Amino acid sequence: QVHLVESGGGLVQAGGSLRLSCAASGDTICLSAMAWYRQAPGKERELVATISSGGDTYYADSVKGRVTISRDNAENTLFLQMNSLDPEDTAVYYCYADTPLDVRAWCGTVDYWGQGTQVTVSS
User: Fold this and answer.
1) DSSP bridge pairs for 94
2) CA-CA distance, 109 to 36, in Å (whole number)?
3) Phi, psi of 2 (to 5 degrees)
4) Bridge partners of residue 11, in order along the sequence
């Protein structure tokens, strides 16, 4: 079992910055690629950014150039540095982890989600 716990959310003015963290604990061999998703009120959950276990990254067009995803594999922690925040970035941000194919049966699941952290950007 793996637990993902996000932190770092809060209220920030437009143009400001926030750094989100996601601490993973438990059977960390069950972690492979990781990602940040977000869900704004009344909207579907959407992908923000992903990072592979080797460090390859992907960003949604809506955040490209403003956010940086990174991970510390030794500390089992995922980060999301967000700059030039806009009110449109207001959402609950969720940490996500994919399970490696070769251990999915042992891990008992294909992925994990954190409980989310609220980010509110005021205009």
Assistant:
1) 37
2) 19
3) -125, 140
4) 120
Q: What span, in angstroms and rounded, lies between the C-alpha atoms of 29 and 96?
A: 15
DSSP 23: E
Strand partners, 26: 2
Q: In a structure prediction context, what are the per-residue pLDDT tens digits for the chain, which is 123 residues long? A: 899 999 999 999 999 999 999 999 998 899 999 999 999 999 999 999 999 999 999 999 999 999 999 999 999 999 999 999 999 999 999 999 999 989 988 898 899 999 999 999 999
Between CA 51 and CA 119 the distance in angstroms is 21
Residues 6+ apart with CB under 8 A from 8: 18, 19, 20, 21, 117
- Distance of CA 28 to CAs 75, 94, 104, 115, Å? 10, 18, 12, 18
- As to burial, measured by CB atoms within 10 angstroms (0-12 exposed, 13-18 middle, 19+ buried), residue 75 is exposed
Strand order of the sheet with strand 77-82? Answer: 2-7, 18-26, 77-82, 67-72
For the record, the structure tokens of 29 come out as 């061999």
